[in-house]
Structures are given as C-alpha cells and as structure tokens.
Specification:
There is one protein chain. Helix content is about 0%, strand content about 50%. By secondary structure, it is mainly β. It is globular, with a radius of gyration of 13 Å. It is built from no helices and eleven strands. The strands form two sheets. Strands 2, 4, 5, 6, 9, 10 and 11 form a seven-stranded mixed sheet that branches. Strands 1-3-8-7 form a four-stranded antiparallel sheet, with no helix packed on it.
C-alpha cells in the first residue's frame, strides 16, 4: 500500500500559477506510475495527468495540455504538477494517485492508492 500526501493548493487569480506536490511512502516509489486527478463540486473525478515510473511517457487531459506539466523526483519520492495560466474552470480538489503498474496509467481503475486531496481555487 502507498501513502500519499498532497500539498501546494491554494487561491490564485486567473492567469496565475501553482505547483502541487505529492509525497509518497510505503512502496518503492520508482516502481509505479503516478497520476493527478481533480474533482469539482457536483462533478465526477476526472483525469488530469499521468507519468510512468521513469519520468516518461507522460499524458495530459486535453483541457490542461500546454498549461500543466507533470514530473517526478524518484530520489525524493515526490510527484509534481506545475499548473500555469490557470483558469476559473480549473477550480477543484486535486488528488494524486499511485498506479498499480510501473507503466503509465490512464484509467481511474488502474490507480490503487489516493491522497486526501488539496483544494485549488482560481478566481476570475
């Protein structure tokens, strides 16, 4: 089992940036892929980005492509989500998740461990 703790959320104006971090423990971090999801009020949890164990390949939802960047530091058991040019519609609770495999995971069902989430609010 993997334990995940997100940080870095907050309130930002539209056009601004935030960097989310997710610290992992419990399993060898470099053995599994990681992902970020988000859930806005009244909506389903949706995929944002994913990264394989080695740092590549990566994948992004169309809605964040070109604005968000996922990366990982295997030496420090941490995955990041750099969010630039934020929009009000990016407002949500952001969750990091650990994939059940070393390769990149894209389906929610392939992620076996989840963090508690961090709130991101983008004001217009």
């Amino acid at each position: 089992q993997v334990q995940l703790v997100e940080s870095g959320g907050g309130l930002v104006q539209a056009g601004g940036s935030l960097r989310l971090s997710c610290a992992a423990s419990g399993r060898t971090f470099s053995s599994y892929g990681m992902g970020w999801f988000r859930q806005a009020p009244g909506k389903e949890r949706e995929f944002v980005a994913a990264i394989a164990w080695s740092g590549g390949p990566v994948s992004y939802a169309d809605s964040v492509k070109g604005r968000f960047s996922i990366s990982r530091d295997n030496a420090n058991d941490t995955v990041y989500l750099q969010m630039n040019r934020l929009k009000p519609e990016d407002t949500a609770v952001y969750y990091c998740a650990a994939c059940n495999y070393g390769s990149i995971c894209l389906r929610r069902a392939d992620f076996g461990s989840w963090g508690q989430g961090t709130q991101v609010t983008v004001s217009s």
